[in-house]
Amino acid sequence: MACLWLLLLLAVSLPAAALDTGKPFRDYVTDTWGVDQGLPQISVLAITQDPAGYLWFGTQTGLARFDGVRFVRYTQRDAPELGNNILALLAEADDRLWIGTTQGLLLLEDQRFHAIAPTVADHPAPVSALLKVDGRLLAGCAEGICTPREGRLRRVQALPDPALSLLADEDAIWAGGQGRVFQVSGGSVRTLPLPLPPAAGNAGVTALARAGGELWAGTRNGLFRLRNGSWQAADPRPHEVLTVEAMHADRDGNLWVATPQYLERLRAGQPPERIHNTPGAIAVRAIYEDRDGNLWLGSMVEGATRVWNGWTRRLSQADGLQDPLLWSVAAAPDGSIWVGSSNGVAVWQNGRFSSRVAGSQLPHPEAYSLLPERDQTWIGTRAGVAVLRGGRLEQPPALAPLRDAQINGIVRDHAGRLWFATTQGLFLLQDGKRLTRYGEHEGLADPRIRLVYETRDGRILLGTYKGLYEWRDGRILATGRLGGLSDDTPVTAFVELRDGRWVLGTSNGESLRVHDGQRWHWLDRERELPANVAFHLAQNGGDLWVAGMRGVYRLPLAVLDKALANPRQALAAQIVINSGTDRTGGQQDKCCNGAGNSRGVLRDGQLWLPTRDGALLVDVDTDTDSAPRNIRIDHVQVQGRRLATGQGTLKLPLDARDLRFEFSLPDFQPMHAPQLRYRLAGYEKEWHELESPTTRSASYASLPPGYYTFEVADFSQAEPLRHAAHVAVEIPRRLYETLVFRLLAMLGLAGLIWLGYLGLQHRYARQRAQLERLVQERTRDLQAANAQLKAISFTDPLTGLHNRRYLSQQIPTDLSFYERDEGYANGSEAVVFALLDVDHFKSINDTHGHAAGDRVLEQMGQLLGELKRSGDYVARWGGEEFLLVFRPLPRGSLGRLGQRLCTRIAAHSFELGNGQQHRLTASVGLIECPLFPSHPRLLGWEQLVTLADRALYRAKMAGRNGWIAYQPVPGAQPPDDLSALAGDPWWLVENGLLEMFGSDGRIDIARGA
Question: How many CB atoms are closer than 10 A to CB 68?
Fold first, then answer.
């Protein structure tokens, strides 16, 4: 059989290849959809695509429309005829879908199904083939070739057999019958019998195709091709008869033949490829190629499968690789590709891998980094370095210090020096003998080096677990820090773009950093960059390629430029390989391993990457641009009904306030995952993102009446609003929501209000006078109560004197008033603060009780009140302390006042109760305000009271029953910097600006004491 397949001629080539004929089937990408994803039934027997781009699948019990994300199903509830096997489908440009079933022909138009009557009444027959020729629909019917007209199938060409398959070919139509093929041309029929074996009987020709310039016919008893006017069996071997279930010739020269046991591909100049037991390609009954070049397979047991070229090729064990787990990949000068696995080193040459070094020969089996050179290859492992020279593996003695280190990268710079990035620091080998280590002592925050990179101007950069550094003349410099890069940035990949900018990958936030020559820019998921820990970065033309743990994506540099100039600009990265990123799109595949040097090679338009399953080759030259896709708003669901959208405004039922808009977008390009957003113009201005990438609906509840326009746009396109879909809806007003009703209601309400106003006006006039009188009385009562409350809050309840709260409010006001007094202003007069404390007051409480103590305090308050003048204050300062504030007196009056207070208190007899009398003394601290006439606002009154308190304390220490005062030292002047006086005024005493004086003979007054 294989020798005959080699005779297949070259297929007709089209401008763009969808399925690479040089790829094995295993390297194609397959995606399968079944009942769980929305198919009405698992057996897919027919497939077609309509002009809008939607795919249609016919199954054994229903029909489904597919837009790449969501299935819209039609079953027997929509049309009883859909309960039969759907054998053929054909879509026309005017939104009409023809459906061939085992019981006849159906038409789906304007969301309604129409049954086409058979040629003979009450004799339904299968329609297994549909064809469009010169604008006319042809169907294979029991009488030959028919066409629908006026609701019935009309025979166009009578044939001896039912037409089981149809094919248009230049000026002829081919029809497959029972054991023969008919050529219909110019109204004449030519019969070409197939050379079937006698035991086969008249096997039906179920499939026709033209490939390689020849006509192919598939039957249940073999595959045949027409050559020199006669049919020849494609497989002459008697022990193997090909049972053809479906056949298709695609645009790339592949002839696909489906049998019950396998799927076979025939290609010009290559042996047949037989696909056994491959998911998606089992029990195929329908084969179809869509407009994007994807191949769709309908299976009896697996549903629908899309087969597409993808952007990758995987080289693994089938290509000679002994261990598929790869850690490193590097290009050699001779054009070969070296890979390091978990068990040795292999090289790709002449289309196959061959082992060069076994893992058992290395210091550690895992070859973690590679540096192939012209006459030698350096191999870095997880435990040291080896070098392969002339077929011999060596471990240079000079590299013995590296035996316990993981080698993340090996680089030879333009000066011939060899650099090793290890987990124990940076090592430099010069002259093959001198090994120098650079670690923490040389300036590294973390000795673990992931990669070494030499820039075009010869700078040696180091990517570490904590920041980016530079080796310069034997010193380690924190280069990243200079541009604002954090020292905690774990560097995983680095590349210098052709324009001189630097790009590095980091595991911190799975993001990128870009240095524009002055500073670093942070690009992450907030800028719509796919989440990915980059292991390899490469520039190909105008694109930056990023490969890492979560896959591979491409970032156009033009988009990067705009994003750096505008912080609001989103990064339109295109996901190529999706290994679990946070976004949809791309090809589902496994990628990638390791962070460090030799983690990727860009060569001949392919990006080589190490993975868990061999080397992944990504085609970086694939054109991923796509034409704008048309969004369709299918229905507006309201009150349990689906209303079809059409031209003009859709007027909804009266009580329709909860709406659900259902839309779709035919999209079968994995690279270009749509970014659909919607809004209801007239109700909102902002666009909303869908809750899920697979959602194709939007709901609104309790909408007010009005005119709205629902819009859906694909923001992954360059001009999303230009290709947006719109539908206008009108929500009618209920009676009470109409303008006339509201006007009448307003007039009636206004009349009632006017009548009510007239009725109440007189009543309000009577009540107004009464209310005014009541308000005046309440106002007087409130003022009296407020005055009483204020007096209470400013009065000590025991003595009836003022309290601190009163002084804090009154003293600043009085001082401001005194500043306008001439004597106070020129410094000849001063306000006096006298702080007084009853001596031995505790003994009265302890001996005679607290009641006696309270009587003493009351009498003390009365006595001090007698000593003050009009305009002076006496306040209870706290406990047994009283503060007297004397309005301005001539300066130098402190001694006279202090002596007077002490004398009058000592001469007074205090009544303790029960006829007991007691004499008391008091200690007094005094001070004048302002303290320095030249600086009247140097100290606040609270600070002056603090100094009086200090003086009071000294009076008590001096024996009590006396007074002490502070005054400025003659000639003392406050300093220029007064900030020190903002707190405790004791600073004036400590610095000798104040002196103390007091009662004659009491203490020895010392300056600053």
Answer: 21
Burial of 622 (0-12, 13-18, 19+ CB in 10 A): middle
pLDDT at 977: 61
SS3 205: strand
Residue pair 647/617 in contact by the 8 Å Cβ criterion? no
Q: What whole-number distance in Å separates Cα of residue 759 and Cα of residue 419? A: 102
Please tell me which of 702-706, 938-942, 1002-1006 the model is most confident about, judged by mean pLDDT: 702-706
E strands in 497-631: 502-506, 511-515, 520-523, 534-540, 543-548, 551-556, 574-578, 587-588, 601-603, 606-611, 614-619
SS3 252: coil
Instruction: Give phi and psi for 231, each to the nearest 5.
Output: -85, 140
Give the tokens for residue 914: 């029960």
- Indicate the average pLDDT of the chain: 88
Q: What sign results for the dihedral spanned by CA atoms 221, 225, 226, 232? A: negative
The tens digit of pLDDT for each residue in 967-984 reads 999 888 887 665 555 667
Question: Which residue has 């589902």 as its token pair?
Answer: 588
Rounded CA separation 551/575 (Å)? 8
Q: How far apart are CA 753 and CA 751, in angstroms?
A: 5
CA angle 41–43–49, rounded 5-degree value: 90
Measured between its terminal Cα atoms, the distance across the chain in Å is: 123
Task: Say if CB 822 and CB 816 are below 8 A apart.
Answer: no
Q: How confident is the model at residue 786 (pLDDT cuts 50, 70, 90)?
A: low
Among candidate residues 643, 75, 543, 36, the one with its CA nearest the CA of residue 304: 36
Classify each residue of 535-573 as buried b or exposed e, where b means 16 or more C-beta atoms within 10 Å of its C-beta: bbbbbeeebbbbbbbbbbbbbbbebbeebeeeeeeebbb
Contact 408, 596 (CB under 8 A): yes
The pLDDT, as a whole number, for residue 778 is 75
How is residue 654 written in tokens?
Answer: 């009266």
Question: Is the model's pLDDT at 598 over the cut of 80?
Answer: yes
Cis (ω within 30 of 0) for the bond into 556? no
What count of other Cβ atoms lies within 10 Å of the Cβ of residue 770?
9
Chain segment 123-177, per-residue pLDDT in tens: 788 999 999 998 899 999 999 999 999 989 999 999 999 999 999 988 899 999 9
Cβ proximity of 184 and 173 under 8 Å: yes
Q: How far apart are CA 101 and CA 125, in angstroms?
A: 9
Is there a contact between 491 and 485 (Cβ–Cβ < 8 Å)? no
> What are 275's two structure tokens?
């696909």
